[in-house]
Amino acid sequence: MIQRTLSILKPDATDRNITGEINGMIEAAGFRIIAQKRVLITLDQARKFYEVHKERPFYDDLCAFLSSAPTVVQVLEKENAINDYRTLMGATNPASADEGTIRKRFAPSIDKNSVHGSDSPENAAIEIKFFFSETEIVG
Ligand code: ADP
Ligand code: MG
After folding, report:
1. How far apart are CA 108 and CA 97, in angstroms?
2. Does the CB atom of residue 58 touch ligand 1 within 6 A?
3. What is the rounded CA–CA span in Å between residue 100 and residue 88?
4. Closest CA to 64 of 48, 47, 51
């Protein structure tokens, strides 16, 4: 089934000017970037976006990091996009990420792990709506 997923290239990626290299990996893996914009996420937006993690000890730091510098938010389209992008991203902790994944190649640490990807069809729909209107998505 063709699916859409929400991807974020996080502040550590824009900071190191590697968004193009990451997009190269995304496209080489067969995803189409059907919407994309550079966004400085506010702290309030970050807290809402990561609300599922609000009880976790790292929540405040996570939200501060996501709003600390520009991000690139994207909608990716592909057969099985949600799970396949999770695979391309690699494990949350880059120390455990497989060879050939974005996080293995680029992420310096678990709290600066370069990319976000939706984890379920339900969350993909919610997260895409969080950043994009229908007219901004050109499939
Ligand atoms: P993922 O981004 O792989 O879906 P989670 O949804 O579990 O991972 O966590 C959201 C983000 O919170 C992670 O990408 C990571 O940046 C951060 N995070 C997760 N676990 C930890 C942790 N133990 N310590 C610090 N930051 C963490
Ligand atoms: Mg997650």
Report:
1. 11
2. yes
3. 8
4. 47
Residue 72 and residue 19 in contact, taking contact as beta carbons nearer than 8 Å: yes
Beta-bridge partners for 19? none
Q: Quickly list DSSP for 41-106.
A: --HHHHHHHTGGGTTSTTHHHHHHHHTSS-EEEEEEEEETHHHHHHHHH--SSGGGPPTTSHHHHH
What six digits make up the tokens of 93?
A: 């902790």
Active site residue 116: yes
The Cβ-side half-sphere exposure at 46, using a 13 Å CA radius, reads: 22
How many C-beta atoms surround the C-beta of residue 77 within 10 A? Answer: 17
Q: What are phi and psi of 117, to 5 degrees?
A: -145, 140
**Rounded-to-integer distance, Cα 111 and Cα 103, Å:** 11
User: Rounded to whole angstroms, how far apart are CA atoms 110 and 104?
Assistant: 11
Report pTM. 0.98
Nearest CA to ligand 1 atom 14: 92
pLDDT tens-digit profile of 23-63? Answer: 999 999 999 999 999 999 999 999 999 999 999 999 999 99
